[in-house]
Amino acid sequence: MAMIRGVRPLFAACFMAIAILAATPRPVAAQTTEGDDWKLVLRKNQEALILQASRFKSMETVLPRVLRDFRSELSALEALRDQLTVITSLTTGNPWELRAVLHGLDRLRGRGDALVEPFRATTEELGRIFEQIETLEGEFSRQSADKPEGEVGQAIDYYQRYVSGVKKALTRVKGSLDRELGPAMRLQTGIAEMEKNVRDRFSGAWKDFFLTPAPSVLSLGAWAEPGLKMELWMSSLGAYRSFFSGEQTTSPWDGLAKPAALALVALLAASVLSGRIIRRFPGLAGALKLRGVLRFAGLGLAFAWAAAASPFLLFEGLSVAAEIFFAAALLSVSRFLAIFLGEPGADDAPNPLRHLFFLFACGLALRVLGLPSPYSELIWTALLLFSAASVARRPPRDDTPDLIALLTTADRWLFTLLALAAVVGYANLSHLVISGWFLALAFLQCSLRLGRLITRWLDRAEAAGVSLFARGVVGGLVAPLIHLGLFFLALYWFCTQLGGRTVFFDILDFKIGYRDIGLSVGRLALLVVGFHVARTAVAAFKSFLPEAARLRPEWDQGILDVLSISATYAAWGLYVLSGLFLLGANFTSLAVVAGGLSVGIGFGLQNIVNNFISGLILLFGRSIQAGDTIQLGETWCQVKKVNIRNTVVQTFDNATIFVPNSDLITGQIVNWTHKDARVRREVAVGVAYGSDTEKVRELLFRAAAEHPRVLSEPAPLVQFINFGESSLDFKLMFWVADVAHGVSTASEIRFLIDRIFREAGISIPFPQREVRVVSGPGDGPKPGGNGYPGLGQAPD
């Protein structure tokens, strides 16, 4: 950082130059008058020139010392670059070694940027001074073109020579800086090329490392010169120490002071935080397990933080320690959730993933140690067989095991199979399988328990009356995003086992498709997230509709249905369009699809599109709405829901009819409740001839007035409609507030009329007929008869 300290005097020199300029006698100033504008310009240019020259002089003074410090730091960085080059050439394609090399290159690039940046800023400052000097040179040249005489001309000539000298010195210094920056820029370029080469090796390194078999431990070649292999392994560790121990410490073990201090701070912070949580929530189930979660997570963060600033050898070791503590924290979270949910045996029963965790930690330790073959294979095989035997001796649980316990029942056979794979040369692959299986089951265990926790909260929230919007957001968006986030976190962690973030991003970018349209893992994740966002948005909007209906009483159910369906189709339409463009579709391909759809509509989809358009007309035209009572021919029914394709109606016999929307648009439909649910009903009644018609009129009005559902406005009406064959015919017309009560009200009115008429002595006649038989000429009654043929005669 010596460069930064060297540039600071530049700003102080500016103020000093101004002070010196104010105290210095100026020969031209004595001859200046108010009318001599060009002389004022000359004085201004003189001050600017002196200021720029002072700034340059201050930089020129500190520049040699800055250059010495710069060369020294650059030499150290070049030495580190050469050491990293050697290590890169010695790596055998182990993804973990390549990741450590990338870490070293990243640190080296950061130190190079910190070295070059102040020099680059100084070069830019010199460039600005050079531009100012050139501007002043032009000003003096223009003043000299007027050929002033006397002292003014001499001053201009002096400053022109002075500017020329400053420009030469500035050009010399600037060239010196450019020459000094050349090696630094080449160093940065070389580091960038090395990073690119190492990252390019990642694409195939993990495949070769994990899928290429090593010599079997049963072969004689694997045991050739075992002592030499151990000696080379020890010397490689010594080489790594010699490479990087001099960077900050004299020994790699001295670098453990920082992670140890960070671990101690993490443990203290976890203890304090867990203690406050226990005091704040004294009845919290599993509070002691929460303390373990905080401790393991804090230790993982401490070691990860220490690894980021550690040299090569310590970086690998501290990274492994961080992963092990993070894995322990993950199992502790799962254990805490089990106790919090009150699962049977959660306090005493061991986690079924403990054997996998043991192998996961041992595998990471063996991988970072880099023991030579076949020693590492033998140790790993022994660990696998020991874990298989331990799983076989594990007693079965009395209660019904969960999904994770059922999956881990196959661990015994999995460990045995992987031990055989390690013996035949696939030890690296068995390491990878153990890591992937453990991470998958650990994250699945947490995901399942978080899902049960969210389900329990939703049940309690519904019972407590929590708003539908909050429950919809938690159940429809938060829960899926948590599960999706855990999945990608597990995938990212597994990809670090393959070497680093590069593999993870390669997996996200892996695309399956045809031409421009394709689907990758990352795009699939965005589609899943968009699906849940659209579904939650629709549910949230529908949850606000009851509140909107309360705030706007003038909005009927039809308006609410229109808003609900419009929001639903708008959200899903936007999701579909976004999904198409996310998959790579463009306007041209969409136009082709639209053309194909138009042909399909013309041939076979006419009715579907017709019903769809008719549904939109019904929704926005609101001629038929949910709750309306309509008449289809002779059938009376009530509208339940207007869909895009059809309308659902229910008859008063409780039969559901799906009516195509096009039939409702093109046919004649009677809507009894459109805009107004009131309906007029009529009751016809006949009284005997000779009845008092005024009294009959009064009694009919009385029957209408006694019924509670008959509206007083519009008022009932009684009409004397006809002199019938057997009766005087009257009609009582009255209004009912709801068409659904029209038939029952008319029936009850008839009961009232019958009772009132009987009490008043008004009779309701029944039809009577008189039959006359006309005899022909010469026909008469027979003797002994009663005047009618065939009556009163005795049988023969």
Automatic annotation (TrEMBL):
Keywords: Cell membrane, Membrane, Signal, Transmembrane, Transmembrane helix. It comes from the Bacteria. The keyword Signal applies. Residues 773-796 are annotated as: Disordered. Residues 777-790 have a biased composition (Gly residues). SUPFAM superfamilies: Mechanosensitive channel protein MscS (YggB), C-terminal domain (SSF82689), Mechanosensitive channel protein MscS (YggB), transmembrane region (SSF82861), Sm-like ribonucleoproteins (SSF50182). It holds the Pfam family MS_channel_3rd. Residues 1-30 form the signal peptide. Residues 683-764 form the Mechanosensitive ion channel MscS C-terminal domain. The chain crosses the membrane at residues 293-314, 320-341, 353-369, 404-426, 432-451, 472-494, 524-541, 562-583. It is a multi-pass membrane protein. Residues 607-674 form the Mechanosensitive ion channel MscS domain. GO terms for cellular component: plasma membrane. It is found in: Cell membrane. Its main location: membrane. InterPro entries: LSM_dom_sf, MS_channel_C, MscS-like_channel, MscS_beta-dom_sf, MscS_channel_2nd, MscS_channel_C_sf, MscS_channel_TM-2. Gene3D superfamilies: 1.10.287.1260, 2.30.30.60, 3.30.70.100. Belongs to the MscS (TC 1.A.23) family. This is Mechanosensitive ion channel. It comes from Desulfolutivibrio sulfodismutans.
